[in-house]
Each structure stands twice: as structure tokens, then as C-alpha cells.
Amino acid sequence: MKEKILPFRQIEWWVVTFLFVSIVLSNVLSSPIFSLNYQQGTIYFAKIFIPLIFLATFYLFHIKVFPNYLKDGRTAKFIIYTILIFLGSFIGIGAFSMNARFSDDFIIPFYFNSLVIYAGYGALIYILNQLLIKNENNLVYAYNILRSILIYIFVVIFLIQFQRIAGEFVAILFVFIIPSLFGLVFYNFFLIYGMQKQNRKGEATAYLVLLLCIIAGIFITIAIVENAGEALIAGLILIIAIVAIIFPISNFFFRKYDNYLGQLDSLTVKVDQGTANLAFLRSQINPHFLFNALNTLYGTALQEKGERTAEGIQKLGDMMRFMLHENNQDRIQVAREKEYLVNYVDLQNLRIKDQENIEIVFNRSEDSCTGEIAPMLLIPFVENAFKHGISLQKKSWVKISLRCLDGSVHLDVNNSIHRSNEEDPEKKASGIGLENVKQRLQLLYPNKHELIIRENELEYFVHLSVKL
Fold first, then answer.
1. Region 250-276: what's the mean pLDDT?
2. Which residues cross the membrane (predicted)?
3. Which range has the worst mean pLDDT, 19-23, 253-257, 295-299, 426-430?
4. Which pLDDT tens digit goes with each residue over 117-137?
């Protein structure tokens, strides 16, 4: 499966949202609001609303304004919206900052530092994009890894300069807890879960024991050096969490991911098989119809009437143009399929025009057919009717009805049957046309078509409805 660039704009939005929501929740729970005095209350609300203003600013610019500018390139609109967002956020953050005495004047250092961090991140991403994606390098895998690392690095840099508002808990969460969790999950995926998938259970157990021993050694060392017995308890809790929570949950998602990849590969194989089958079916259909048309012209030429032969050649020319230019397309206009069908019936009428015992009825709506359909779905049933339904010695008939409704096409074909007639060399053909069209209907219109075929000793009936 081809590597694709991850949806980093959405990833950045969710990372920043998680960051600021963590800051807000940490500040909300840091102290009971009812026990605060006026100055403490202003600081309390400032620590809540300043992160929310930052989050709203990031959303408006990074998710709305800047992507729209990249799409439409309207510089004036981009500059106006950027200035409005800057002024709104600057005034709001400045008001809360001064009221909480985070700054002595309206020039807020951490606000402008945040802008510099954001600009620096954007500049590095641009350079990364030029080096790894543009200029035909297309190093998508390396780009995804490096950009993910840059997101984390700049989040940590932002927290360092935002620590007066963010608080200690959030810093510990993003600097220590989250990287540790990611490290444990990757360790499990590559060295424990990966070994188990390869039936190397002994090595998987060894890597698990090694990890637990390293963690135990770290916390024992801390307990001895710092003379802190609680470090042993913390280490024990961490080991239990790894064995009982972190690894089982991560293994569950790993298995889900493997199942997803398996289903995706299976669907890819089925699609490839369907495409190959469809191409093969089309390659069978085209020569089959060409032979029928040439055989009809052969019968017309035997009657030595130049006008009718010329008319037949014209009809054949239209049919050949259709097959050459439109038959290989996935979809064509229904009107073009109808036109091909009319030409085919007219061509057959030339051959049997003077036969009194043969009845040809072709009812079709005069309204234009709208919509698109896969080519060569209707003609095999009509061709089959002429192939098996016409005898120059016995009473014969072919009755066709073609209706185009809003969003669907309906074809009804009724013909006589003459099983022992060997006048037409095509009688001995294998008749692959109908089988092909049945397979194409299953491939192209699953649950969107109805095909009813009935026959007895005297006649053959086909009803086909296709939802476009």
C-alpha cells in the first residue's frame, strides 16, 4: 500500500486541543473557587480563559483562515482576517494577563513568544516539505516521522515559556508521562507483540522481563539514593500498570489494526480481480459483436442491393465508432447506448426486411435518456434474440421495449426460439455474450439491477432493470 502523508492539520488540532484542555482542567481543579479572594480569583479565571483564547486563536487561523488562503489564494481576505484574529486574541489575553498581574504592561512576552514558536514551526515544516516531498524526493515515511517529532518538540517548547499558566502537572504530563507511554507502546509493538506474532514467544517473554527489570532497577536506585521508600511503591504500581493495563490495551488495538490491514489487503485483491475480470470480459465482447455485424452485412450483400448495403455499412460504421471510442470507458451516456441499440436493430431489419413471416417490433421512448451507464449492457440481450429467434422458413418474432425513466433503464426482449435452425453460422457459437453481461452486472451494479430470464419451447423472455 502506497505511503501517504498523514493528516497533520487535524493531528495538530487535536494535539493542541488536548494540550489546552489539559491546562484548563488542571487549573480548574487546582483550587476551590469559593475559597479564593479577589486577586486569587482573577488569577484563577485568567489561567482558564487565556488558554481558551489561545485555543480559539489557533483554530481560527490554523484550521480556517490559513487553509482557505491556500485554496483560494485571496491575499487581501487573508490579511484582514489575520489582523482581526491577532487584535482580538491580543486584547483578550492582554486584559486577563494585566488583571491577573502576569504582566506589568500590555506588551505580553509569552503571547509574542507563542507567535514566534508557531512561526518557527511553520518555517521548519515548509523546509521539511521542500526537502522530502517536493522536487520528486517523495520521502513520505521520513516526512511523517520527522513532522510528528517536530509537533512534540514545539509543544514542549511552548510549555516551557507558558509554564506560569500551564502548571507543573501539565509539564510532567507532556514531558514525562506521555513520552513514557509512547515508548512503552512502541517497545511492546516491536519487541513483545511483534515477537509473539512471529511465534517467537521465548524472545517476547525475555524482552518483557528485561523491561520490568530495568524499571525495577531505576526505582530501586532512586529509593536508595534519595532514601525515599515511596519510590519502591511507585515502581511497583508502574510495573502492575504495564502488565495489567498498558500492554493488554495496546495489544487489543494492535490486533484490531492487524485485522484492518488484513481486510484492506483482501478488498484490494478483490478489486484487482474484479478489474481484471472486467477488462477480460470486455475483450471478449468486442470481437463477438463485430463478428455478428459483419455476418449481417454478408447476408445483405448476398441480396445484391447496393442501397441497402450502403445503409448497412453506414450503420456498421456508427457501431464501430461507438466500440472504438466509447466501449472502453467506464461510463457513457445512456443516449449513446440507446443509439447503438437502434443502429443494431436497424442493421438486422435490413437483412430480414422482405420476410413476411418475421415480425420485428421495437418500442422505445422518444424522450431523451439521461444519466450514465456502463457500455454494452443492453445489446447482448437483443443480439441473442436475433441470433436464436429468427428463422427464414418459420414464423418468427423479436419484440423489444426500451424505457428510460428517472434514474433507471428498463429493457424487455421477447423472441421466438428455433433450436434446430442452422442457417446462421453464429448458431454454433458458444454464446459468451450473455454470460459476460451477467458477470458485468454483478461486478458493476451489485444490488442495483434486476435480471429475469424465462424460456419455454416456443419463446424466450428477458427483463432487465438497471439503477443508474
1. 83
2. 12-30, 42-66, 78-98, 110-128, 140-163, 169-193, 205-225, 231-254
3. 426-430
4. 999 999 999 998 888 887 666
Give the span between the Cα atoms of 335 and 369, in whole angstroms. Answer: 5
For the entire predicted model, the pTM comes to: 0.59
Task: State the residue range of the domain holding 156.
Answer: 8-263
Query: Do residues 52 and 165 make contact, with C-beta atoms less than 8 angstroms apart?
Result: no
Q: Give the separation between CA 186 and CA 250, rounded to whole angstroms.
A: 9
Is position 162 within any domain? yes
In a domain? residue 294: no
Question: CA-CA distance, 421 to 394, in Å (whole number)?
Answer: 10
From the number of C-beta atoms within 10 Å of its C-beta (0-12, 13-18, 19+), residue 326 rates as: middle
The per-residue pLDDT for range 165-196, each reduced to its tens digit, is: 888 889 889 988 999 999 999 999 989 998 99
Do the bridges between strand 372-373 and strand 408-416 make them parallel or antiparallel, or are there none, so unpaired? unpaired
Rounded-to-integer distance, Cα 162 and Cα 155, Å: 10
Q: How far is C-alpha 66 from the chain's CA centre?
A: 24
Nearest residue to 119 via CA among 170, 162, 66, 75: 66
Residue 377 counted as domain residue:
yes
What are 455's strand-pairing partners? 460
Residue 372: give its domain's CATH number. 3.30.565.10
Which among 263, 286, 309 is the end of a domain? 263
